[in-house]
């Protein structure tokens, strides 16, 4: 079993507060018609190929990069607690594979506290992913999500 300290060394985390009610943030994360409109860094379009939102269900999104290449995001949901938590395996091909993605939500009045964790198999892999631009890529994605939520 992993110690808390060892787990922390394999985890990259982004926290922010969305200026939107928790039900809306949950809907944006769980409904494919919403996901297609904000998922991925700025400048990318996303096509939801599969989104079977249940424990054991698969998800697969294709992001079209400005240069015409495709970036594949896929995984299997392992834990879902409505309005609180989504945990999934995740592969982001061709850059990242074999990670666990955690979306944690907490009601904060009419806002939503959001914690995003990505747990890597090793500390070295975690450091490599951070150096490859984890915070920039996901930061841009969550800026798109914030903009999307403000339009709803």
Question: Please, could you describe this protein's structure?
Answer:
The termini are far apart. The protein has 152 residues and is α+β, with helices and mostly antiparallel strands. The longest helix is centred in the C-terminal third of the chain and has 18 residues, at 134-151. The mean pLDDT is 94. Strands 1-7-6-5-4-3-2 form a 7-stranded antiparallel β-sheet. The chain is built from 5 helices and 7 strands, in the order H-E-H-H-E-E-E-E-E-E-H-H.
Secondary-structure map with pairings?
Blueprint: H1 4-9, E1 11-18, H2 22-30, H3 32-35, E2 45-51, E3 58-64, E4 70-81, E5 85-93, E6 96-108, E7 111-119, H4 123-131, H5 134-151
Antiparallel strand pairs: 1-7, 2-3, 3-4, 4-5, 5-6, 6-7
State the order of secondary-structure elements, H for helix, E for strand. Answer: HEHHEEEEEEHH
**Average pLDDT rating:** 94
Report the count of strand segments: 7
Strand content: 35-45%
Uncertain stretches: none
Structural class determined from secondary elements:
alpha+beta
What characteristic shape results from the CA principal axes? Answer: globular
- Note the gap between the termini: 43 Å
Number of helices: 5
Relative helix content: 25-40%
Strand order of the biggest β-sheet: 1-7-6-5-4-3-2
């Amino acid at each position: 079993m992993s110690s808390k300290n060892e787990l922390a060394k394999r985890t990259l985390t982004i926290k922010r507060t969305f200026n939107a009610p928790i039900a809306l943030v949950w809907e944006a994360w769980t409904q494919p018609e919403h996901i297609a409109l904000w998922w991925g860094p700025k400048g990318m379009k996303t096509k939801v190929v599969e989104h079977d939102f249940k424990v054991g269900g698969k998800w697969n999104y294709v992001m079209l990069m400005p240069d015409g290449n495709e970036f594949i995001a896929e995984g299997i949901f392992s834990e879902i607690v409505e309005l609180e938590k989504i945990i999934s395996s995740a592969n982001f091909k061709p850059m990242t594979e074999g990670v666990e993605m955690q979306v944690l939500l907490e009601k904060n009045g009419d806002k939503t506290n959001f914690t995003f964790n990505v747990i890597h198999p090793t500390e070295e892999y975690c450091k490599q992913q951070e150096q490859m631009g984890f915070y920039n890529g996901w930061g841009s994605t969550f800026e798109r999500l914030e903009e999307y939520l403000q339009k709803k």
